[in-house]
Every structure is written in C-alpha cells, then in structure tokens.
Amino acid sequence: MNQAGVNEKYKVSPFYVFFLVHSMQTGVGVLSFQRVLAKITGTDGWISILLAGLIVHIMIWVIYKIFSIVPGDIISANNHAFGKWIGNFFSLVFILYFFLLSMTVMISYINVIHVWMFDEVPSWAFAIVFLLVIYYINTGGFRTVTGIAFLSVILTYWLLFVLFYAMKYSEFTNLLPVFHHTLSDIWKGTRSTSLTLLGFEMIVMYYPFIKDAKTSQKYAHGGALTTTLITVFVYLVSLVFYSQKQLQLTIWPTLSMTSIVELPFIQRFEYIDVSWWAIVIIPNMTISLWAASRGFKRLFNVQQKYPLWGMSIIILLTNIFVVDVDSLYILNKIINPYGVLFLVLYLPLLLVIIYIKKRRKPI
C-alpha cells in the first residue's frame, strides 16, 4: 500500500521532527496574534492558546495513528480510504492548502518589511529573493530542508530574551482578572490562535522521509509543546507590557516591544529584529512549498522541480499584480478558519474510515 517509498539515504533521524514541527509553527503569526486574541479574551487569552495547543497534540496523535495503519503519506492514506479519484481530489485540496499557506506567510512577512523598513521597495523584489532562496534549498532535497529548519531554531532563540527587556517596564496587575470570560469567548480565541500554531500538519507529507518514523511521535509532540509554551510566554509578556486598550490597537505587538530596546551602538533595534525574523520565516515557506510540490509530484508523477517552478511563478505574479491589504486579509481568512476547520474535521474522519476498512479487510 505504501507508494511513497523513500530511499534510506534521503531520510532524517526522528529527532529532527522536533525542529521540523517547531520551526514550521513559529512564524509571522507570533508577531501579531496578541491583538485579535486580546479583543476576544483579554487576560484569559492564555487559556485559548493552551486549548489550541491541546487540539494540535490530538491532531498529531491522529496523524501518527493514520500512518501506523496505512504506511506512506497523506496521498497513500486518501487513496486507501476513498479510492483513486476521490482520494486524489482530497490530496489536491491538501496541496492547495500547503501552497496557500506558503503564499500567506510570504505576503505577510513582506508586508511587515514594507511597514517597518523599506516601504518604497516593491513586493515582487522581496518575493524574487525569497523564492530563489527557497528553490535553492528545495533542490537540495528534504535533508537540506530539515537542516534549514534546525538552523532556524538554533539561530533565532536569542530573540526570546529580548522580551525580558520589556518586562522591566511591565505592570503585572494587567494579568488580572482571570477566568472572567465565557467558554464561547475562550473558543473564539482558540480559533483566532489557530493560525499561529499551524504547521504540524506538514507531517502528512514528510512522514516517509523519517527513519523509523513511528518513534518520532514524541519529538513531534515536543516541538508542538515548545511552540505552545513560547506563544503563552509571548502573550503574557504582551499583557503586562501593554494596557488592554493598547494591545487591542497595536498591529504588531511583538515588534513594537522590541523597538524600546536601547543599545549604545544600535539606534533602531527593531530593524535587526525584522531582518533576523527572515531566518524564522524561510523554513515556513520552504517546508510548505516542498510539501505542495512533493504532493504534486506524487499525484502526477512529474519531477518535483516543475511544480516548484510553477508555484513560485504564481506567487511572484501574485506579488506583482494582486498584493494589497485586502488580498492578505482574504488569504488569512481562507487559511483560518476554513483551512483549520478542514484539518480538524478531515483528519479524524480519515482515521475513522481507515480504521473501519482495516477491521473489514486487512491492509
């Protein structure tokens, strides 16, 4: 049943799944999620983040359970559950989702660069640079993609310590009151946080590239847990640094906090922060485009570089002719809530169907 056979020399150790999951989840959403969450849940927003993290862990368990029954990737699982034609339709939905996620991340980050640094440089100029880097990384194979994810985590963790600088200007009574929002508000906050914690689902494509893949589940959970805890930390720091009204009006609270950093040799520290954040964002775009092009290769039996070219050209043309604030808003709405809702509903349904078929007929 496994049609996604991968040569052993192209596989990575289970340990690296921690970095693949964590680097993919940590992206441009960390810069701005606080504003929307504060409007909905205020000081109880950390509960929504923990609930979103719990849902992520459940989805990771579902993914590994699926592949314990049907070895391979999501395309193998879809074909086993629904047959070739319906299964290929759902696989195309996943490919489209991966592609749109990559485009959303790139356009969002370019928007940040425009606002904070280079407002007169056209979007397509940044897009060309990013797409060339992403193509170069992807042509090195999945092991190179994994290496970039590993370096991204190692080289950017120092940014967390910048937030401690903001804490000396903090008012800790801003954390109160606690538990004063309804369950409905908490759930709405969880939905708004979902985009920040997305990325774990890429496992459905790179699962065959993991050595002894079933042993990597604990590392996938570890990566998701780390992202959740960091997101909670960032939100709590934002709560004590800003007033509720300020937090609800600040578009990029994380970046705005770093702008207060004062060093004798650096006048605008946020320039360093925005620039260094590219190291965080590149794995987001690289892994999702790799997953989309890999899925296209599996479905249509073409070399992976061709769909990668095509998708890169579409992203570039989008940055030339379409990009504005409204298009970014539409992309975010497609991914969240519709993309999130699709994952949360589809993956458990897929597991149930595969499990039923297993009981009727062994794979």
Automatic annotation (TrEMBL):
Signal peptide: none annotated. It is found in: Membrane. One of its GO terms (cellular component) is membrane. The chain crosses the membrane at residues 12-33, 45-64, 85-109, 121-138, 145-166, 186-207, 219-242, 274-296, 308-331, 337-356. Keywords: Germination, Membrane, Transmembrane, Transmembrane helix, Transport. It is a multi-pass membrane protein. InterPro entries: Spore_GerAB (IPR004761). GO terms for biological process: spore germination. The keyword Transmembrane helix applies. NCBIfam families: 2A0309. Belongs to the amino acid-polyamine-organocation (APC) superfamily. Spore germination protein (SGP) (TC 2.A.3.9) family. This is Spore germination protein (Amino acid permease).
